[in-house]
Structure formats: C-alpha cells, structure tokens
Design goal:
- With 518 residues, this protein is α/β, with parallel strands linked by helices.
- It folds into 2 domains: 129 residues, Sandwich (Immunoglobulin-like), CATH 2.60.40.1180; 359 residues, Glycosidases (TIM Barrel, Alpha-Beta Barrel), CATH 3.20.20.80.
Length: 518
C-alpha cells in the first residue's frame, strides 16, 4: 500500500511535465481568402564568410572531396532536394568590398584578397561570377546578386550588370572570352547592403540619393528584366524605411529588412547548444517579435505606396549565437539545435501572413554560417534541424495561404539581462495552404513540457487520406553532429484524424508537424 501511495504521489508530481496536455483550436477560414505564398519566401543566402563558400558550396575541381566541376556533390544534391528558389550572394558585408573583376578569368590569374569583414581570411577568388551563376542554373534557382555601393563605383556596377546579362557589347565580349557565350538570366540585384552600417555607415537621405544614381545605370539587356532592391533598415529603424519610401519610392522594386534573433550586439550572444528554459522561451519570443515589426514597416510603406508596388524583402534573418569553441570568431560557425528549428518554423508562419507585401526572405546562411541548412567538415556533411523544417515546409511554396485564428495557451517571456520588455509567446503556431486541390497544414508546439491536442475547424473539408511528418527530439538542445548526424530528423506522423470538417492532431511537446490532406 505504501508503494502505491508513493507511486501516485510521484505520478502526480510529474503531471505538469510528463502527462500535461494543452488544448488548442484553429479556425481555418474560407479557402477563397489569402494570398499566394511566393516560393521566394524560402530564399537562401551565401556570403563569402568562413566556410560557407570555400569548403561548403565549393571545393574546386582538384579536390579529393567528390565534386562536379568544383561543386560538392553532396551539398548540391541536398540543396536540390530542398527546392531552393533564390540564392543571395556575395554578401552581406562582404558585398561592399567585393570587386567582381577579381573573380573572373583564369583562376590562376585571379588576385588574392583579404576578407576584412570576416576574420581576415585570405581567399583566392576562385569562386566568382561564373561559379555562382552556374551554380544557380544547376540548382534551378534565381540568383540574387548584391552589388557594391560602399566601396564601388557606378561604372563598376554598370559593367557587372552588362557582363552578366548582355548579349553583345564590350563586357559580353570579355564574358565570352572567359567561356560563357550566352548571358545569364539575372533577375534580382541588390543596390548595396546594410548601407547604414558595414555598407558605408550612411544616413538614409544620403543612401537614398546614391540608390537613385547607382540604380539608374543598372541597365536592362536583351529582355532581362531587373528587380532592383534597395538596402533597407535594420530591425526597428522605422525612419530608414520612411526616408527611403518618401525619397525613392517606385524607383525601387523592393526594400530590404534585416532581423536577427540575437541576444545583443555587444558581449556574449549565448551558446547555441547550452541554454535554460527561460533562454529558450525568450529566444522564441524575440523571433516572433518580427510580427509586430513587419506591421510597423508595412504601415509606413502603405502610406507612400497603397497599391503595394514596392515589396518588403527580409533578406537576412535567423538566429545568431556565439561561435563554437575552437573556431575562428570571424567565421560565425554555430551549431543548430531543435530550438533553431522552432525559430525557423515560427518565422515562416509569420512571413506567410504578410505576403501581400513581403515577397522574399533569405535565411542567414545556407552552409556553415549562423542558422545554416548544412554543416560540412572535410568530406563529411550534416543536415541541420533547420534544413528539415525548410524541407517539411516547402509544400507551401506557391500555394494559396489560408488565414487562421488560433486559440491556445500563451506565456510571458522575460529575461532581465537582455534589457528588453516582456513578450507574449503563443504555444501553438500554424500555416495552412492549398495547392492543386491538396491542403497542407503545418503546426508547431513550442511548449517544453506539454503535449497538445489541436483541433482545426474547416468550413468544408473533403479528405480521404492524411499523411504526416514530424520533427521532434528528447531535448530541444540536441543537434546533429558529424559523429551523430541523425539525432534529429523527420519521422512519419500518424496521430491526426479527420471527422467531417474537423481535423484533430495530437502533438508531443516541442514538436513540428506537417500534414498532407487529400
């Protein structure tokens, strides 16, 4: 009898963790509502930083690592499987110190350069314009080329656009001599990057005038329509957006915005793999802070552009932690846990809501830097939890977004040392979309202790089969390493049932689920 009493007390004490469950409801609105989610919301970013390019995407034709024409075979396959829609290059801060003529012609003749922004690394420019644009063709994605305003000239920029896209002319002749007969299709060009900071420390009024000047000489050749993107604000700098919209307006097709889930820019940013529960919830609260921030920037843009002809592009986002021990501080190599996967899913859910204005986002960065999709070391490759989120979510690319209203538990996130106000974090997040008659539902339960029974109520739901995938682990601080590459990976999910117009999903704590309803 005493044993039974003790066991009952133990089980009661564990109730808030092992057996606690929350209930949530999701009202799914009529499928005639909502915008199409542009596939470019799933954009990637590759900067000359650490081993993102060299050792990540590119190893060179003479490498012992299996490659095709210098591109890593394993990485190319992984990125093809991810259905990458657009890839931004060469920076980042690197873009405004990059002179494109150093990266063309025979590799043995290309000058070496010091990467002053990122660790003082000396690189040989073996990965340049041809290597990047050819890679985009291999991946079947749109290139997004960031042009040099900070240390470059109008002439240099104009000639680069001509080199890439002109059929004939002086720059086309040089390109052809370097082995590329036909011009590339280049849609997206960025006129500078972070011009308020590493791209020139400019005032918005000054940069706005420079943008008008530089973009004028980015000519269009042979029907190649350029989509010109102005360097936009960092985080909460609403004045930058105000000035650019007022002084530049429709002379730009898009305006960028950068937002990182970061502890702060001075001192320690915290470890990627070592954090408390409070750190975890603060991180997700900070991540979701981009929701209200987007509303504020969009409100300004709507004032000057009510027809929404200028897009907002979040072309740098993601987590930023301290580098891993023993690595170059300037190379920004960090591990990637289930916490990072949560940031990815919550961010994508938010971006989907604002696609009447937000037309592209680019997570930073694709390989070996910050919140990456892939980690490489010599001939080894690891797919991160964030990679799997993008893989599970790519069913929403070019699908119609269906608005939802979620009723669920929430918590106040607070951490005094971060010197920020309180935030409210909902325990459940979701995206619902429809494409070609198939409905996809993605759900995230961020709670560390409670499982969730989520009830989705549809206006009409004619479903015969439900197929699901789940991303989950024992501890949100777990990650995939070169020694243990499969700690976190998707698995088949079967705990979803449909009855008439109601879908019921039972989710474990800290899990991400995507369902296909046919």
């Amino acid at each position: 009898m005493k044993f039974k009493i003790i066991l009952a007390l133990l089980l009661f004490g564990m109730g808030t963790t092992a057996f606690a469950q929350q209930k949530a409801t999701v009202a799914v609105h009529n499928s005639t509502e909502g915008n199409v989610i542009p596939k470019e919301i799933y954009g990637q970013f590759a900067e000359h930083l650490g081993s993102c390019i060299y050792g990540g995407l590119w190893v060179g034709e003479d490498s012992k690592i299996p490659n095709t024409n210098g591109y890593r075979n394993d990485v190319v396959k992984a990125l093809k499987d991810l259905k990458v829609p657009v890839l931004r290059w060469p920076g980042g801060c690197f873009a405004d110190e990059y002179h494109w003529v150093d990266g063309i012609g025979p590799k043995e003749n290309r000058p070496r350069m010091v990467n002053n922004n990122w660790g003082g690394t000396v690189e040989d420019n073996s990965f340049g314009t041809h290597e990047f644009l050819n890679l985009c063709e291999i991946l079947g994605c749109e290139p997004y080329v960031s042009l040099n305003v900070g240390s470059g000239s109008v002439e240099e920029m104009a000639k680069w656009v001509e080199y890439m896209t002109a059929e004939d002319g002086p720059q086309a002749k040089i390109r052809k001599a370097n082995g590329r007969e036909k011009p590339w299709h280049v849609k997206y060009i960025g006129v500078g990057n972070e011009s308020w900071g590493c791209g020139g420390n400019m005032r918005p009024e000054y940069y706005g005038d420079l943008y008008r000047r530089y973009s004028t000489y980015c000519r269009e050749f042979n029907g190649n329509k350029l989509y010109k993107i102005a360097s936009g604000a960092s985080d909460y700098d609403l004045n930058w957006t105000e000035v650019l919209m007022k002084n530049v307006g429709r002379k730009m097709d898009g305006l960028s915005l950068h937002y990182y889930t970061v502890l702060g820019w001075n001192g320690s940013k915290g470890k990627a793999t070592k954090f408390t529960d409070d750190d975890y919830y603060w991180c997700l609260g900070k991540c979701c802070g981009i929701d209200s921030l987007l509303q504020k920037h969009i409100k300004i843009m709507d004032k000057y552009d009510p027809k929404k002809q200028v897009a907002l592009l979040v072309d740098e986002w993601g987590t930023w932690w301290d580098v891993e021990d023993g690595t170059n501080p300037g190379h920004l190599f960090q591990q990637n846990t289930m916490r990072d996967a949560m940031v990815a899913s919550l961010s994508l859910d938010i971006f989907h809501k604002y696609t009447d204005r937000v037309k592209m986002t680019n997570i930073a960065q694709v390989i070996n830097v910050l919140q990456s999709m892939i980690l490489t070391k010599d001939d080894k490759m690891v797919l991160t939890p964030t990679y799997y989120v993008f893989q599970m979510y790519n069913v929403h690319q070019d699908a119609k977004y269906i608005p939802v209203d979620i009723t669920c538990e929430s918590r106040t996130t607070r951490n005094e040392r971060k010197n920020e106000g309180d935030r409210t974090l909902n325990s459940i997040s979701s995206t619902v979309s429809v494409k070609d008659g198939v409905t996809h539902v993605s759900l995230t339960n961020v709670d560390l202790a409670k499982s969730a029974e989520v009830t989705l109520n549809f206006d009409k739901l004619n479903v015969k089969t439900v197929n699901g995938t789940i991303l989950n682990c024992k501890n949100v601080a777990e990650f995939n390493s070169f020694e243990k590459p499969d700690v976190i990976k998707p698995a088949v999910f079967k705990d979803a049932k449909v009855k008439k117009n109601v879908l019921t999903v039972k989710m474990p704590a800290h899990s991400i689920v995507t369902l296909e309803l046919k």
